[in-house]
Structure formats: structure tokens, C-alpha cells
Amino acid sequence: MADPLKEIFNKFCAFGGGKGAVAEMDNAKFAKFCRDTKLLDKKFTATDADLIFAKAKAKGERKLKFAEFKGAALTLVAEKKGVAPNALLESICNAGGPTSSGTKADAVKFHDDKSLYTGVYANGGPSTVDRGHDGLAGIVSDHDALTADIRGVVQK
After folding, report:
1. For the segment 71-118, what is each residue's pLDDT rounded down to a tens digit?
2. Which among 54, 31, 10, 36 has a CA at the least distance from the CA of 92?
């Protein structure tokens, strides 16, 4: 049976990463992990999460590997919260994976209801095709055959 903590770690590492997601957790994903698993409270704040991430990762690295996450980071989190490491692991495993909290646009009366459109847009919007003429030839033939001098002044 696979380690449920490793599965959760991999889910948070892959969240928002696209196809090229690697099994390493950066600071933003560690903060999201702390928020989504409900670890943050008065004893353990977002600032504490940033500091623990910095302590747990290898010096000179930007991301946490699973061994560092399980060994150092979770031990420091349990110590800061004042709970047993096993109780912390159980609450993390029960919390599940990352959650997406995107926004949804509000309804806009004059945009969504096409029966309220006015002007050109009531008829489907502006067009690049002149209806009623047979292309460019029809437009040119309808034009009064006025002549213009070299400066563009119309001669009658």
C-alpha cells in the first residue's frame, strides 16, 4: 500500500504545475498545503510556515523534497503547534488534497441578455461586408463620378 502522506505531498506538488510537474514543493505550495490542510491557527501562522520551510529545505535549494518534508518540516510544524507528530500526520491525511477556489463572474444584465442589445449590436454587430452592394464594383459604380485634382479637392 502506498504512503498516503506521499500521495498528498505529490498532489500539492503537482497542483497548478501542468504537465511538467516535479515531486518537489516550493514555498508557495507549502503555504497552500498548510492552508488547505487547516494547519494554520493562532499558534502556527503563515509566517511560521515560511520560516519552517526555510529551515527544512537543504541549504541553497529552493524546493523541499519528500524526505525533507516528512522529516524536518512536519516535525517542526508539530513542535510549533504543540501536538504529537502522529496526530499531525493523521489530520493531514484526513484533510485530503489541494482545493481550487477560483472566482466566478457575476451576471451582467446588459451583457448577458441579448434582447437588451441596442444599435448595431441588436442586429448581430458591425460587419465588414457591405450588404446591398455587389462587392467593391457595386460600391464604386454607385459613387458619383466626381473628379479630384492632385490635392484631393473635388471638381464638379
Report:
1. 999 999 999 999 999 999 999 988 888 888 778 888 888 888 888 888
2. 36
Beta carbons within 8 Å of 8's beta carbon, 6+ residues apart: 37, 92, 93, 95, 96, 97
Closest listed residue to residue 8, CA positions, set 39, 50, 47, 54: 39
Amino acid residing at 106:
D
Q: Give the Cα separation of 23 and 26 in Å (integer).
A: 10
Whole-number Å distance between alpha carbons of 86 and 92? 10
Considering the entire predicted model, what is its pTM? 0.64
Taking CA 105 as the corner, what is the angle to CA 101 and CA 110, rounded to the nearest 5 degrees? Answer: 175
